[in-house]
Specification:
The complex is a heterodimer of chains A (about 110) and B (about 110).
Chain A: E1 3-7, E2 10-14, E3 19-26, E4 30-38, E5 43-49, E6 56-58, E7 61-66, E8 71-76, E9 85-93, E10 99-102, E11 106-111
Parallel strand pairs in A: 2-11
Antiparallel strand pairs in A: 1-3, 3-8, 4-5, 4-9, 6-7, 7-8, 9-10, 9-11
Chain B: E1 5-7, E2 10-13, E3 19-24, E4 31-38, E5 42-50, E6 53-56, E7 65-71, E8 74-79, E9 88-95, E10 104-105, E11 109-113
Parallel strand pairs in B: 2-11
Antiparallel strand pairs in B: 1-3, 3-8, 4-5, 4-9, 5-6, 7-8, 9-10, 9-11
């Protein structure tokens, strides 16, 4: 069964700290890995990673994929209270029909 | 663009009643997805359509759930009869082309079955 596991489940930090969120996966026929940010409502897309070792960056957020060790990390530097959210990792599998498998998320709380 | 539109935003119903959730995808998007999110199970893909055709419904929990997409701008997810364990937030998302394209989520429908 395809599986995506995120850690930690929750994290509390102070503004200005740097955080690293982890996502490991066990799937058949990996295609891509995605990161989403979910605040109070719907998930919003952050990154899509397909190739190992290539960092994707957007402002203070960055992410990288390791297809050999089957994991990805999402880094947030100089955290702000607005970064408080649940961060979801999802893996797209390919094959007969593509599937999207989500992890349960990491709840990040950034305190002032 | 208005984004993905879902209605209703909140639904409270009694066990045994029929529930219909509605979704309007972003104009021009060819794929539409229905998800369910609960604390216990996280976000789960229920079904997705490509060009109005159901591609994968393996995530649909049981026969009480059905989804239709009669045209490119409208989809419904129906639960009949509803049960308390169906209580969750149901999201609709759309993308330009399939699972591998960036999906844009609607605001969700919070369903409570008493």
């Amino acid at each position: 069964e395809d599986k995506v596991v995120q850690s930690p489940l929750s994290l509390v930090v102070h503004e200005g700290d740097t955080v690293t969120l982890n996502c490991s996966y066990e799937v058949t026929n990996f295609r891509s890995l995605l990161w989403y940010k979910q605040e109070k409502k719907a998930p919003t897309f952050l990154f899509m990673l397909t190739s190992s070792g290539i960092e994707k960056k957007s402002g203070r957020l960055s992410s990288i994929l390791d297809k050999k060790e089957l994991f990805s990390i999402l880094n947030i530097t100089a955290t702000q209270t607005g970064d408080s959210a649940v961060y979801l990792c999802a893996v797209i599998t390919q094959g007969g029909s593509e599937k999207l498998v989500f992890g349960k998320g990491t709840k990040l709380t950034v305190n002032p | 663009d208005a984004g993905v539109i879902q209605s209703p935003r909140h639904e409270v119903t009694e066990m045994g009643q029929e529930v219909t959730l509605r979704c309007k995808p972003i104009s021009g998007h060819n794929s539409l997805f229905w998800y369910r999110q609960t604390m216990m199970r996280g976000l789960e893909l229920l079904i997705y359509f490509n060009n109005n055709v159901p591609i994968d419904d393996s995530g649909m929990p049981e026969d009480r759930f059905s989804a239709k997409m009669p045209n490119a701008s409208f989809s419904t997810l129906k639960i009949q009869p509803s049960e308390p364990r169906d209580s969750a937030v149901y999201f609709c998302a759309s993308s330009l082309g399939g699972v591998a394209d960036t999906q844009y989520f609607g605001p969700g429908t919070r369903l409570t079955v008493l």
